[in-house]
Amino acid sequence: MRAGILGLVLTGLLASCVTVQPGPAPGVVEAEATDRVPPAAAVANFRDAVARVEPAAERMCRQESPELNCDFLIRVDRNRNAPPNAFQSLDRSGRPVLTFTQALIADARNADEIAFVIGHESAHHIEQHIARQRESAAAGALVGGLIATMAGADARTVNEISRAGASVGARRFSKEHELEADALGTVITARAGYNPVRGAAFFSRIPDPGDRFMGTHPPNAERIATVRRVAAGL
Question: How far apart are CA 199 and CA 205, in angstroms?
Answer without folding.
Answer: 12
